Amino acid sequence: MHKLNTVRVGAKVSILQPAYVAGLEGVICGREVLSGGQHSERWLVQVDAEFVVSLTSKEFQLLTDDKHLL
């Protein structure tokens, strides 16, 4: 599991779960926002140009050293 402050927008990830996207790579788009404007503990991950999934930090593995990302 990743600490919420170590995951950054633009970081490349390998998806571990759920099964229908496991093994694919994606890019972190940002935190999921709940109604009322609060951030959830889930991340939006773009898998390809038209496919975005909402994942917990347990469901992906960081592939890039994201220290240089904003």
| Terminus-to-terminus distance | 21 Å
Instruction: List low-pLDDT spans.
Output: none
Tell me about the biggest sheet?
A: 5 strands, antiparallel
Radius of gyration: 11 Å
Main-sheet strand order equals 4-3-2-1-5
**Care to count the β-strands?**
5
Helix/strand order: EEEEE
The dominant shape is globular
How many helical elements?
0
Rounded mean pLDDT is 87
Structural class by SSE content: mainly beta
Amount of beta strand: over 45%
State the share of residues found in helices, binned by percent: under 10%
Q: Can you tell me about this structure?
A:
The structure is a single chain. This protein is mostly beta strands. Helix content is 0%, strand content 46%. The chain is built from no helices and five strands. The chain is globular, with a radius of gyration of 11 Å. It starts with 11 loop residues before the first strand and ends in an 8-residue tail after the last strand.
Index terms:
mainly beta, 5-stranded antiparallel sheet, 0% helix
Show the helix and strand layout.
Layout: E1 12-15, E2 25-33, E3 39-48, E4 51-56, E5 60-62
Care to give the gist of this entry?
By secondary structure, the protein is mainly β. It is 0% helix and 46% strand.
